[in-house]
Amino acid sequence: MIARYNFEPTKLWRENLLKEVKEANLIYVTGNTVIDTFKIKIREDYTHEKLK
Predict the structure, then answer these.
(1) What SS3 class is residue 7?
(2) For residues 38 and 25, what is the distance between their CA atoms, to the nearest angstrom?
(3) Of these four, 6, 19, 20, 39, which has the most CB atoms within 10 Å of its CB?
């Protein structure tokens, strides 16, 4: 066993795991925590020359 619990970024990823006969009670949808953090912490008007 590699992992007992699965933490997935989206409901779609969860559904894909369920197709692989994973136990539904061991799959948690957490969201994409890195992107969610960026959305909270970075100003909306933030710019950088490499992002253009």
Answers:
(1) strand
(2) 29
(3) 6
